[in-house]
């Protein structure tokens, strides 16, 4: 149906994590007990997948300095983060959780829907990033990835984001290449000692003028010292935004509601957290896609146990999520009531992880764990009444698709001296996938339907696909080796090597239709081209070497500079090969293995430039990034490589007042992937102003984004297909323009 719309935290890769424990030793017995308990829970210890991320205790800082054991190349974003990098300032300007990561070293965002950007780390995005929401991965329930993992949690529910780019310890997760993004919702709130009953709440409202976007949110908790009950809910809605030249950018509207309930209990060093919720998206436009989201509903249940024992710590999680997704045309793409082309997806995610940290001695720490992940996928397209091409049967894009992953890891961290620390890790992941027989809209071929069937080869494709075996099993091995040298209290150097492996997703292997319509419905790349799966794909294997040099003052309060160059060689990189055309300049592509390299560097710096009791404190910070990617087999550039870019921020604080001026500069994008007809984009610079004042339980925020109403084209935004289609599909499709000037206002009241 077409639709009209009018208007307490985890520490992945905890390098030298410092945990308070009642007893630190008993190494041999502890190791044996941990392995046996993990095996009993997993039932598959020999191949179980490990993903360490031990919950730190209250009051322990992570990702703050080398002395705290964080990876130098990692980034932390939290509600009380450094300066204006805190989440409170960022939530005001966006309803897209991925956008909270802007300005973090190594992070870029590939364009998608208004609340569904796809993050990339060091040039590798989408499924190549291990994205965890409350410790669990979430598989996209859509052939266009309209509901990626970070869209499953509202920015208002996020309490902390941790980013590990490049050299990622095996304990931070597998089945990925570029790193890990871990997003955590707020932990349960408990009463303080001596407090009988604790209650707290928060109401927030934000408005953004461009697109007339509104967000409302509410939080409430009631607890004693051993039990907690909390609620969090939000609603965001926006119309189409306008570009800097005043033109309305079609299919950028959205509507999303998010509700979650959290129950927690704790006693004697043990804590249990249960969380459940429902998210609904009545609609979300996708300017770079041929379709739009016309309904998306998901429900989830998460459970977590955290325990402190005399032998170490144990962290166990279980998760379940079910997502029902529908695509069709919104009005911007020609949708009319009762018409269109409905497409449906049903996905179930379920799994668990068990992780243990064992301090074997003052020098050595061992981390082990087990993990299992299951995804079940059905993707079908209902027949369209009155259409000869899209009837009379239901088209099965993926039927009874399953993707399971299980494995194990072990990680040894050694503090050889105050100056030298090493980390060695080994991980094994076994991935097995399968799918059932598929079906086209019609089994008639060229003999039965003449020239029309010759233009639509799906019947022959389905027969060929069903004639082959679909089951595939990959045995993947990851290795990480890191060394840190801290020669003085003003410098640190970290260097390492990582071997990371990712198996194809269900669509990359099993999207079978080569017809013009069927292939164009698959693809999350924002280029409006057609994509066809490949049963013979091999897993990607990335070899990364990287070094981080960090310089800072002795107190780590005045200034800091950090440089991270990296080199990645990807064996069997899943790129594409052209197999035909779709007309109007669009092409048909099949996923294929190639070898590729990525070379780049990230630079970040910060300094306190002035401080006075009367005037306040001024801080200057900046982040710059560059990446170059190349397909070694054909010499073409890799798709969606961010050109040289930088973000410079001047912040001011005085009492409850905080303000900032941001300048974002991006160079011209000249190296593009010819195979996908990726558009080039000119360079640009944007200026943003923001300010906020907090007194007592009230906070007020205001700001102006794109102060000078600059018209610019997004280098990773994809093509402006919605406008191209509205213009009669004539000429050449161009790059998607970014949003023009927007005035922002918000208020938060705590009680």
Most strands sheet: 22 strands, antiparallel, barrel
Mean pLDDT equals: 88
State the shape: globular
Strand percent estimate:
over 45%
Structural class: mainly beta
CATH architecture: Beta Barrel
CATH class category: Mainly Beta
Tally of helical segments: 8
Supply Rg.
Answer: 25 Å
Query: Low-confidence spans: pLDDT under 50, at least 5 residues?
Result: 1-69, 79-85, 446-454
Q: How many domain modules?
A: 1
State the helical fraction: under 10%
- Termini gap: 44 Å
Membrane topology: Multi-pass membrane protein
Keywords: Cell outer membrane, Membrane, Receptor, Signal, TonB box, Transmembrane, Transmembrane beta strand, Transport
Family: Belongs to the TonB-dependent receptor family.
Organism: Azospirillum endophyticum
Question: Top keywords for this entry?
Answer:
single chain, mainly beta, Maltoporin, Chain A, 22-stranded antiparallel beta barrel, four-stranded mixed sheet, 49% strand, disordered N terminus
What does this protein structure show overall?
This protein has 751 residues and is mostly beta strands. It has one domain: TonB-dependent receptor, beta-barrel domain (Maltoporin, Chain A). It has eight helices and 30 strands. The chain has helices at residues 27-42, 87-91, 446-449, 451-454, 458-466, 506-510, 516-520, 721-726; strands at 74-78, 107-110, 118-121, 124-125, 129-133, 158-165, 179-185, 198-208, 213-223, 227-238, 254-267, 270-284, 292-309, 312-328, 343-359, 364-381, 395-415, 420-434, 472-488, 491-502, 530-532, 540-552, 559-583, 586-612, 616-631, 645-654, 657-666, 684-695, 698-705, 742-750. The protein has a 22-stranded antiparallel beta barrel. It has a four-stranded mixed β-sheet with strand order 1-6-7-5, with no helix packed on it. A hairpin with a 2-residue loop joins strand 11 and strand 12. The longest helix has 16 residues, at 27-42. The protein is globular and about 75 Å long.
């Amino acid at each position: 149906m077409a639709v009209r719309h009018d208007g307490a935290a985890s520490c992945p890769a905890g390098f030298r994590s410092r945990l308070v424990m009642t007893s630190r030793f008993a190494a041999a017995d502890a190791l044996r007990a941990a392995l046996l308990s993990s095996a009993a829970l997993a039932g598959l210890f020999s191949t179980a997948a490990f993903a360490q991320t031990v919950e730190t205790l209250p009051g322990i800082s992570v990702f703050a300095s080398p002395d705290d054991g964080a990876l130098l190349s990692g980034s932390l974003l939290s509600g009380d983060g450094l300066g204006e990098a805190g989440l409170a300032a960022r939530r005001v300007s966006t309803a897209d959780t991925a956008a909270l990561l802007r300005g973090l070293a190594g992070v870029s965002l590939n364009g998608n829907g208004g609340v569904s950007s796809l993050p990339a780390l060091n040039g590798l995005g989408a499924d190549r990033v291990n994205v965890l929401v409350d410790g669990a991965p979430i598989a996209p329930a859509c052939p266009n990835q309209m509901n990626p993992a970070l869209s499953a949690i509202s920015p208002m529910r996020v309490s902390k984001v941790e980013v590990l780019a490049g050299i990622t310890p095996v304990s931070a997760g597998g089945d990925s290449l570029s790193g890990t993004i871990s997003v955590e919702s707020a932990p349960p709130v408990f009463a303080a000692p001596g407090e009988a009953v604790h209650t707290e709440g928060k109401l927030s409202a934000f408005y953004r003028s461009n697109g007339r976007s509104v967000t409302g949110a509410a939080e409430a908790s009631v607890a004693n010292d051993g039990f907690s009950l909390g609620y969090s809910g939000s609603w965001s809605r926006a119309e189409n935004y306008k570009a800097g030249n005043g033109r309305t950018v079609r299919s950028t509207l959205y509507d999303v509601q998010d509700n979650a309930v959290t129950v927690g209990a704790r006693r004697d060093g043990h804590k249990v957290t249960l969380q459940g919720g429902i998210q609904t998206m009545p609609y979300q436009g996708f300017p770079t896609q041929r379709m739009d989201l016309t309904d998306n509903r998901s429900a989830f249940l998460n459970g977590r146990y955290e325990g402190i024992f005399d032998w170490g710590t144990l962290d166990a999680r279980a998760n379940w999520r079910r997502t029902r997704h529908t695509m069709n045309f919104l009005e911007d793409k020609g949708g009319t009531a009762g018409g269109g082309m409905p497409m449906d997806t049903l996905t179930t995610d379920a799994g668990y992880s068990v992780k243990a940290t064992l301090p074997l001695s003052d020098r050595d720490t061992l981390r082990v764990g087990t993990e299992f992940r299951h995804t079940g996928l059905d993707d079908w397209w209902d027949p369209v009444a009155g259409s000869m091409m899209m009837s009379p049967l239901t088209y099965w894009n993926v039927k009874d698709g399953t993707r399971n992953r299980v494995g194990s890891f072990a990680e040894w961290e050694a503090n050889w001296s105050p100056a030298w620390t090493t980390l060695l890790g080994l991980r094994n992941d076994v991935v097995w996938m399968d799918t059932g027989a598929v079906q086209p809209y019609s089994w008639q071929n060229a003999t039965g339907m003449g020239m029309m069937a010759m233009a639509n080869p799906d019947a022959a494709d389905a027969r060929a696909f069903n004639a082959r075996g679909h089951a595939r099993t990959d045995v993947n091995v990851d290795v990480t080796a890191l060394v840190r040298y801290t020669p003085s209290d003003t410098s640190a150097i970290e260097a390492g090597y990582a071997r990371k492996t990712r198996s194809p997703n269900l669509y990359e292997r099993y999207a079978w239709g080569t017809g013009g319509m069927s292939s164009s419905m698959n693809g999350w790349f924002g280029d409006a081209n057609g994509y066809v799966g490949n049963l013979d794909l091999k897993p990607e294997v990335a070899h990364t070497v990287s070094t981080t040099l960090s310089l800072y003052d002795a107190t780590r309060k005045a200034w800091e500079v950090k440089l991270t160059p990296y080199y990645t060689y990807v064996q069997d990189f899943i790129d594409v090969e052209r197999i035909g055309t779709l007309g109007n300049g669009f092409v048909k592509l099949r996923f294929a293995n190639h070898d590729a390299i990525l070379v780049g560097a990230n630079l970040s710096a910060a300094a306190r430039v002035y401080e006075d009791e009367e005037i306040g404190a001024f801080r200057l910070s900046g982040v710059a990034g560059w990446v170059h990617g190349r397909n070694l087999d054909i010499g073409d550039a890799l798709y969606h490589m961010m050109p040289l870019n930088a973000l410079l921020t001047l912040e001011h604080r005085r009492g409850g007042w905080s303000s900032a001026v941001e300048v974002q500069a991006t160079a011209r994008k000249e190296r593009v992937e010819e195979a996908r007809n990726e558009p080039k984009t000119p360079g640009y610079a944007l200026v943003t102003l923001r300010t906020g004042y907090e007194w007592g339980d009230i906070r007020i925020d205001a700001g102006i984004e794109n102060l000078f109403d600059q018209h610019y084209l997004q280098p990773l935004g994809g093509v402006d297909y919605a406008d191209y289609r509205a213009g009669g599909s004539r000429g050449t499709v161009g790059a998607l323009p970014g949003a023009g000037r927007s005035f922002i206002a918000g208020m938060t009241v705590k009680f």
